[in-house]
Amino acid sequence: MEDKSMDMKTTEENKVEQIVAAEPMVQEPADMEQTAAQAAGSEIPPITKKDVNRLFFRWYVRAEMSNSFERLQSLSFCSSMVPALKKLYPDKEQRAEALKRNLQFFNTEGIFGSAIHGTVLAMEEQKARGEDIPDDMITNIKTGLMGPMAGIGDTLTWGIIRPILLGLAASFAMQGSVLGILFPFAFVIITYIIGNYICNMGYKLGRNSVKQLLQGGLVNDVIYGAGIVGMFMMGALAASYVDISTPLQFTINGEEMVVQDMLDEIVKGLLPLGFVAGSYFFLKKFPYKILWLLLIIVAICLLGSLTGVL
Amino acid sequence: MDMSLVLFALFTGIYYWFTFSVIGYTFSDAFFSPVVVGFILGLVLGDMTTGLTLGATIQLIYIGIIGAGGNWPADECMAALIVVPLAIRTGMSVEAAAALAVPLGLLGAFVNNIWRGGNTVLVHWADKYAEKGDEKGVARCGFLYAMIWSFIITVPLMFVANYFGASLVKPLLGVIPEWIMHAFEIAGGVLPCLGIAMTIGLIGKRNNFALFFLAFFIVIYSGVNVMFAAIMGVCLALTMVFNRNKGGRELNGR
Q: Which A-chain residues 184-213 have CB contacts (< 8 A) with chain B?
């Protein structure tokens, strides 16, 4: 056991694996006889479901409110933990330590990342009750989980759920239908319910939650299925709303040749598909250069308009 | 001074402040959506059809564009808040107005960077409160002070844009050559390809790539609407997920 806790302190490198490796440490102290510290800890009121819901609500409200270049969501994280920490650490000095511990660098996706809040709350509770949980361990688990949870969350929340709902919103609004505005609000309700559930799950399962979440078949199935709906929707949106055609026409031997009609005879939708494919390969080659891609497309439009090709 | 214009400009400023502060992770995102902005401004200015269609067009330009690591490459809400009133009050075409949303969205991203630079100061204040064990101070930095700071950089900017916007842009519209306006209109039509490509890059895998083309050609050839395509996509996904699990279990000998 000692060796493993030393490992934890070396930090960095495959933090998730460390978390998994450090797992047995949780159960061990719980089985031990009550120490003096634990006796003191037992006076602390238990964390209820209400506290966890409140934690998620606070996080949900302020997740991005104080996002800064230096520590991104660290202030939001700490600020959302405040009522829970106040409950767990009646002693002012201990509370100051806890606040500082929870103010360290943090950045993840807010909906699925809330599993981390639940996990950290579970660990803080154990610590407050006198179990031997080093500060480093809480921080390491937090930083180790940020990346994987952001990966899952960015894909599901922002890469799939949001574009699908906003695509539907736009398709209704395009026809002047007020129903379109319902979809952005559906996004709010759906993501809040998911986030609250995930946060509670994180608290209940403690440190194990991560392993179960990341390795479990359910997450894989959800990502697989959502990927299918997402790709299907993207195809439908590209066909419906990437709107481009060429007005070019030639006269050969007195016969009018309309270029767009000729293209349509081969395969319909070649130009929109070409622009999507071009953008896709550009972003594959130069990820994060979206601003450049935007400028290139605008330049192509200017050139096309000037020459009469587009 | 036109009182109704002052009130309107102030309203857009406060609206922008609200969405910019991101009160509620996805809650403010709903108000951030150009469709909702278009609806609300259309309602206020008395031209809901233009508001909704223009909002939808701007929405589509930015659809699928996500901020990886919290870096928003463009701010479609700011774009919509300036462009929708502009289109309704100057009577410019929806396509041309939507294209104007492109440079304005970039300006919005710039404002966002300034805001996050300023937030660094708040984290340092929070450090000091935490040192003293003052949890109320930490919470204040995360909410109240953050709100005050975002007020400072959003409301005046949006107020100026909407107070002077239409009167500045209207004479300009007459001067811009026809081919540039036409290029803007083309850009408004073609730019959704950008966010779509970005989303495909994020979620596209070998096992679902063909479905993009399937949906694309179904819609291109049959012209079915997007809602129908969404329903089809969900049915397809459910079928494939359940079949995959069945196959997996058989492979595992269960």
A: 184-185, 187-188, 191-192, 195
- Residues B115, B241, single domain; the answer is no
Range of the domain at B218: 204-254
Q: Which residue has the higher pLDDT, B78 or A209?
A: B78
**The residue type at B240:** M
Among A198, A241, A291, most B C-beta atoms within 10 A, so best to mutate, is A241
Cα–Cα distance, B125 to A79 (Å, whole number): 13
pLDDT tens digit sequence for B201-249: 888 888 889 999 999 999 999 989 889 999 999 999 999 988 886 655 5
Amino acid at B225: N
Neighbours of A294 (CB within 10 A): 22
Q: Are residues B143 and B154 in the same domain?
A: yes
For B19-43, b where at least 16 C-beta lie within 10 A, e where not — what string?
Answer: bbbbbbbbbbbbbbbbbbbbbbbbe
Inter-CA distances, A262 with A111, A218, A267, A269, Å: 48, 48, 9, 12
Q: Which residue of B has its CA nearest to A225?
A: B237
Are both B90 and B208 inside the same structural domain? no
Close Cβ partners of B193 (under 8 Å, ≥ 6 residues apart):
A238, A242, A272, A275, A276, A278, A279, A297
Same domain, B236 and B186: no
Number of domains in chain B: 2
ipTM of the complex: 0.85
A227 touches chain B (CB under 8 A): yes
| Ranges of each domain in chain A | 2-150+195-220, 249-307
| Cα Rg, chain A, nearest whole Å | 26
Whole-model pTM: value is 0.82
